[in-house]
Amino acid sequence: MNKKRMAFVDLSNFHDWPMGGMLEYELALLENLTNSFDIDIWGVSVNGKTPAPITINGRIYPINIFANVVTKGKFKIIPNFWKGLLLATKKKKIKKQYDYIYAHTASCLVGISMIEKSAKLIYHQHGLNFKKDKSMMALIQRPFYVLAQKSANIVFVVSDDDSVKKYAHNMQDKYRVKARYYPVKSPVHLDKFDRNKILTKIRNTSNINNFLYTGRLTAFKNAKFLLEVFNLYVKRKNSTAKFIIAGSGEEEEILRKKIQDYSLENNVTILGAVRHDEIYDLLEKAEVFMTASNGEGVSVSVAEAYAAGMPVLCFEVPGLEKQVIDGVTGKITKNRRVEEFYESLLYVSENYKELALNCVNESKNYDSYRISKFIEKCIIQD
């Protein structure tokens, strides 16, 4: 039986731009969706460099380029987010070529909706944290979120069930959006984790010595706050504790300065951008995952921390307040005070084994195959 044709579209080169959990999310979905659909991948070049094809399940998939994004130099004038609209220039290659078009950036779906009326349009909203993001980029993107959802037949939202229901009702009431909404989690390759090794780590850990953060180093992610908390832990509790920060971003130099100011050079390591296949080793060695993010969808980093048996410390913010089960898979700090977050850290340290085992059990809900099959079912039956 012939497979239905699908265009899988994002403002990404599907290799290393943009960095972060969203790219890993999409690659995990593709690994399963390519078994059920005949897929073409549409993406971008970065600074003029055309991405190499990617291999999924033994098959080579070229990246069909619709735009070039610029991350440095004097030509970085037009916001890259807007370049999703350039899909409208690919009318001859896209119109009436697909049964489904599945876009992961709002501007991409808006661009496609200008030229394609016959395919089922699917938009994947990666979280609801934008509602609290006051940055210029968030302000640029917000109108496109509305337009994409007005154009879509199906909208997947990476968040918990209750939040998606409220969000869908608001969009339908305020903007007359007619799309069907589905809440989804973030997929994790559980087979990438050595369960026996993780259970041995949990069993043999007596003192919490290794902390980890993975993600972008931006004001919104607020990793500098974690340094302030970790500094208290080193000074008051464990002078040999280690904190690995795997990520890069505009606040990297601020973090490096804080490390010097707190004399934590022997305790904190900033690795910069790390290939995702190298993240698994970091996860298996660390005991506690920390994030001070101002909001997430359903965090891939947190889901992977669960799979590695790592309790999570976070704030009570959109996404994380539902994903992290307070006192069960980690500890949620309600107020943005260093001392209070530090107390949460001590709670996790004192209850580590129980929390860690709960995390391993909770990780089953993020299995990439299960989530991909749910998405596939929603697309086909809708």
TrEMBL record:
Alphabetical list of InterPro entries matching this protein: Glyco_trans_1, Glycosyltransferase_grp1
Recorded coiled-coil stretches: none
Gene Ontology molecular function: glycosyltransferase activity
Pfam families (alphabetical): Glycos_transf_1
Keywords (A to Z) from UniProt: Transferase
Residue ranges constituting the Glycosyl transferase family domain according to the UniProt record: 201-364
Tagged with keyword tRNA processing: no
Signal peptide location: none
Listed name of the protein: Glycosyltransferase family 4 protein
Organism: Ligilactobacillus agilis
Upper lineage: Bacteria, Bacillati, Bacillota, Bacilli, Lactobacillales
